[in-house]
Amino acid sequence: MRIKKSGYTAFFICLIYIIVCGFISDKQVYPRLGIVSGLAQDSLAYASGFKMIGESVPKLLSPALTDEQFNANLKKIKAAKCKVLSCNLFFPSNMKIAGPDVDEAKVLAYAETVLSRAGQAGVKFIVLGSSGARSIPVDYDMVKAKADFAGLCKKLAQIAGKYKVIILLENLETTETNFITSLKSAAEIVREVNHPNFRLNADIFHMMREGESPNEIIEAGALIAFSEVAEKQNRSLPGVMGDDFKPYLRALHKINYKGFIFIEGNIKNAPTEMPFAFQYLSAQVAAVYSEKKTD
């Protein structure tokens, strides 16, 4: 189903959502939706139905920002209609966090500032994607890279715990990085770190691009503290191309996931696409979470 200018499609999806929700018990709890749209689109996100948004570390929390700039950001966060729940783009591409060129002291000092500021700002989640920062040389020992990375992440988790922030390791795809390109491999790192402030972000968009089965969500289980989604072909918002996310949502439902699902995609026509995406994804979530779980 594609977005239509007439608005009939949006109305139809919204109607389905209302009908489906009517069959759900008042006690039914299902994932809350957010969107990575930034403070610049806070009002539109709120009007579209979202109550939570994602921003980026460079814009909001980076050590490159002066205290004055950061304090100005705090005022913007406080005035926002939506809750700024997460920030992505944790590490810049020139600050290596995996491979032979990691300057651990520099990485930890940088993370200390970012996570301290996240705590002050009330940002609960920092997404660790950072494709450039975590890419490794083609001929580098993968076993060593994973062991060293897990060791670094344990130290990052300790800092995050100090500021009551959760770092979310994100599975990426092979077009973006050559290190940790599946939910399965990301889950292995999270298990090794074994810290409550270092959890897993199940990125459904990247899973679809890599052809990864929804069963990997079930295998990861309680490691998952967050999920992100966009349509497979162009990373468009849900509803633009009409992608069916229900197999992955069904896996989340099976593990009793009741956390957050954030849309992180390319937005071409925000006033049209954002409200439609909220309606479209809400309908799929409601439909799946109203189903009876099967073994």
Helix/strand order, N-terminal first: HEHEHHEHEHHEHEHHEHEH
Mean pLDDT: 92
Kindly report the spatial arrangement of strands forming the biggest sheet: 1-8-7-6-5-4-3-2
Would you identify the CATH H-level superfamily? Divalent-metal-dependent TIM barrel enzymes
* Number of extended strands: 8
**Approximate shape:** globular
Instruction: Estimate percent helicity.
Output: 40-55%
What structural category do the secondary elements indicate? Answer: alpha/beta
Q: With helices defined by DSSP (H or I, 4 residues minimum), what is the helix count?
A: 12
- Proper CATH architecture: Alpha-Beta Barrel
Give the assembly state of these chains: single chain
Beta strand %: 5-15%
The main sheet comes to: 8 strands, parallel
How many separate domains?
1
Q: What do we call the CATH topology?
A: TIM Barrel
* Radius of gyration based on Cα positions: 19 Å
CATH class: Alpha Beta
Rounded to the nearest angstrom, the distance between the terminal CA atoms is 31 Å
Low-confidence stretches: 4-8, 13-26
Structure explained in plain terms:
This protein is an alpha/beta fold and 295 residues long. The chain has a single domain, classed as Alpha-Beta Barrel (TIM Barrel). The chain has twelve helices and eight strands. The chain has helices at 8-22, 42-48, 57-60, 67-79, 104-121, 131-134, 142-162, 183-193, 204-209, 215-220, 246-254, 270-289, and strands at 32-35, 52-56, 83-88, 125-128, 166-170, 198-203, 224-229, 260-263. The protein has an eight-stranded parallel sheet. Helix 11 (246-254) packs across helix 12. The protein is globular and about 45 Å long. The relative contact order is 0.16.
